[in-house]
Amino acid sequence: MIFTVDVGNTNIVLGAFENDQLRFTSRVATEASKMEDQYAIEFADIIRLYGYSPSDFTGAIVSTVVPPLVPTLKKALTKLFSCRVMVVGPGIKTGLDIKIDNPATLGADLVCGAVGALAKYRCPMIIFDLGTATTISAIDRHGAFLGGSIFPGVRVSLSALSSGTAQLPHINTELTGNTVIGTNSIDCMKSGIVLGTASMIDGMIDRYKEILGEDAAVIATGGLAPSIVEHCRREVIIDSNLLVDGLYLIYKKNVD
């Protein structure tokens, strides 16, 4: 089995693959202060929760947007599995044709998302990742990564709004119905953040398709994708496992 670890700014998404099948996924909080043994114990407990043992795993791969965690996680995984631990970064084979100004600066999360999408969907494509940040990636008809956009994420925006104002509360992103015109502060905020983000996605899809010059598959991933995409008017495929799938494919490219 192969263990995948996708480290975001807020959550770490874990995946376990056996015979090219995803057996389980799990999420834990990203905590830079944790030591390697703490992560090793937490991962081991999750593995056993799903009916497996650390001894079942023969390899592991990490993608992270939190570089200081790389040595900690590598040591934790090496202790847990006694195996080689790959890290997505310069020098690792991805098979991705990256057309941005400096390919070495492309985030590991965007690389994994693109690799996962290319294996499952037709080109061209537009990929939205709704996490701590909201990112958009453009893949052309030839499968090349052209670039993208970065926005403050939904929860980051909500936190900034609540923290920076005297009377607006902290709220969740659950929108009851399609309340466009709110009649109280909470409904107004939910309309702005949920329907506003959905409208942004719809608008950016149109703009990206104009540049790509043809229709494109649109894929959304990330923890907040389901709660936002249901309000989009454009067709968007939700793929919650896109990054762990990409991680697994990158692992295979570097061992086969």
Notes on the structure:
This protein is of the alpha/beta class and about 260 residues long. The protein folds into 2 domains: about 1-90, Nucleotidyltransferase, domain 5, CATH 3.30.420.40; about 120-240, 2-Layer Sandwich (Nucleotidyltransferase, domain 5), CATH 3.30.420.40. Helix content is about 35%, strand content about 25%. The protein contains 7 helices and 11 strands. Strands 6-9-8-7-10-11 form a 6-stranded mixed β-sheet, with helices on both faces. Strands 3-2-1-4-5 form a 5-stranded mixed β-sheet, with helices on both faces. α6 links the parallel β10 and β11. α1 (about 35-50) crosses α2 (about 70-80) and α3 (about 110-120) packs across α7. The longest helix has 28 residues, at about 185-210. It is globular. The mean pLDDT is about 90.
Which features characterize this protein?
Nucleotidyltransferase, domain 5, 36% helix, 2 domains, 25% strand, 256 residues, 7 helices, alpha/beta, six-stranded mixed beta sheet, 11 strands, five-stranded mixed beta sheet
Main sheet overview:
6 strands, mixed
> What is the N-to-C succession of helices and strands?
EEEHEHEEHEEEHHEHEH
Oligomeric category: single chain
By CATH's scheme, which homologous superfamily of the largest domain applies? ATPase, nucleotide binding domain
CATH architecture of the largest domain: 2-Layer Sandwich
The number of helices is 7
Number of domains: 2
Which runs of at least 5 residues are low in confidence (pLDDT < 50)?
none
Strand content: 15-25%
Order of strands across the main sheet = 6-9-8-7-10-11
Q: Which fold name fills CATH's third level, the topology of the largest domain?
A: Nucleotidyltransferase, domain 5
| Overall pLDDT | 92
The first-level CATH class name of the largest domain: Alpha Beta
Q: What's the number of extended β-strand segments? A: 11
Q: Level of helix content?
A: 25-40%
User: Taking Cα atoms only, what radius of gyration do you get, to the nearest Å?
Assistant: 19 Å
- Tell the overall outline: globular
